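User: C-alpha cells for this one?
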Amino acid sequence: WAVILPGLGLALVLAGCAETMQAAAPSDKTVIRVGSPFKPGHILVDAAEKFKELAAQRSGGRLAVQIDAGTLSEEEISTRNSTGQLEMQSNGHRSLEVFAAPYFFFNAPYVMKDFDHFMRAWDGKLGEAARAMAEQKGNVRFLGIVYRGLRQTTARKPVYTPADVYGVKLRLPNVATWIAAWKALDATPVPLTLPQLYGGLKTGQADASEGDLPQIASFKLNEVQTHLIITNHLVQTGGMLINKPFF
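Assistant:
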C-alpha cells in the first residue's frame, strides 16, 4: 500500500469534500459511492477498501464510502462516474479510452516496458495531457494509479507460439486496439464484459481469455480454464477516479 496510497489523493478528496462536510449537520455523512467491475479479492477492490478505511479514519466518520464490486461493467461504471451517478471509480482505463483516446497507448499491448516506464510517462507531459483531456471531456479526475501486474493468457489448451492462437475464440473487453492486436495474431476476439467473463468461458462462448493475475484469480477462471500462459503482453494499471463536480 505504500506504493498505491500516496497516489490516491486522499488528502485532496478530504479537502475537496470539506465544504460539503462543513455545510452538513454534525450527524450527517457525505456518501462516496465507488464502483469497480472486479470481484472482491482484486487489487482494485482492495484499493477501494483501503480508501474506505482511511476516509472514515481521517474524516472522523464524516465520509461514508460505499463500494459496489463486480456487479457493473467497466463501461457502465465509467459512464456513471462521468455523469455523477457514482462519485468515484476503481476501474480499468475505460475513461481514458473514451475521454482521452489519443493517449490510450498507456493501456495498449507491447507499448510500456514495465511499471517504471509507465510511471515515467504518466508523471510527465504525456500523462499530464491525458489527465487534462479526461477531466475536460469526461468530467472525471484521476486521483492515482494502481499497478495490477502484467496481463497473461488463459486457455483450454497449451499455447506455445503465436500460431497456437489461430482461430481461438478469445474473450476480450470491447477495446478496439486490443481486438486489433489479437486479430493480427489470427485469434478470433469475442467481446464480453467482465460480468460475462466466467459464464462465457464456462458455456464455450469463448475458449480463452487474457487478463492480469488478480482478475484471473478473483473470477476463479481456474474452474473453467486448464492452462495459464505467461505472455506478459501488457503492463496493466488501473485508476482511482472521482467525479469532477463532486470533487
